[in-house]
Amino acid sequence: MAAEARERLAQIGIMWAGNLGPAGFRRLVGHFGSATAVLGASAEQLAKPSLRLEAKSLQAIVGLEELLPQIEEQIEALAEQNVAVLCDFEPDYPQILRSIPNSPPILCIVGRILPIDDPAIAIVGTRRPH
């Protein structure tokens, strides 16, 4: 798997399985240098108090490597339903979102974003809909 594709999958996996918000995600990836490096970290490295990971998140991230194929299947299933999953480093990620503090590292978009959509209005939902 190409490095960029692996980084993309790692980023999506950490956000989905790790149950992190944007600030927690950026703190974690900033500490290790990349989402791929986070997946290679040991439980001891992830347990550093400065990373402020809850035990549940830590356990999910430690076991995430083996779940990547399932996450990739979820992304493909979403694509079949016309839902695109975008990471903030990808070219299609909305530029205006990159400029706001604590922008979402991952977006799930129904439909397509067209050049005419700039500027646009979006509804950004919760990670835990009830």
Q: What's the arrangement of secondary structure elements?
A:
Elements: H1 3-18, H2 22-32, H3 35-39, H4 43-46, H5 55-62, H6 68-80, E1 83-87, H7 95-98, E2 106-110
Antiparallel strand pairs: 1-2
Helix pairs in contact: 1-5
What does this entry look like structurally?
This protein is mainly alpha-helical and 130 residues long. The chain folds into 2 domains: 3-71; 74-117, no CATH class. It is 47% helix and 8% strand. It has 7 helices and 2 strands; from the N terminus they run ααααααβαβ. The chain has helices at 3-18, 22-32, 35-39, 43-46, 55-62, 68-80, 95-98, and strands at residues 83-87, 106-110. It has a two-stranded antiparallel ribbon with strand order 1-2. It is globular, with a radius of gyration of 15 Å. The N and C termini lie far apart (36 Å).
Give the gist of this structure.
The protein has 130 residues and is mostly helical. The chain is built from 7 helices and 2 strands; from the N terminus they run H-H-H-H-H-H-E-H-E.
Task: List the keywords.
2 domains, 7 helices, two-stranded antiparallel ribbon, mainly alpha, 130 residues, single chain
Give me the Rg, rounded: 15 Å
Structural class: mainly alpha
Q: What is the assembly state of the chains in this entry?
A: single chain
Low-confidence stretches: none
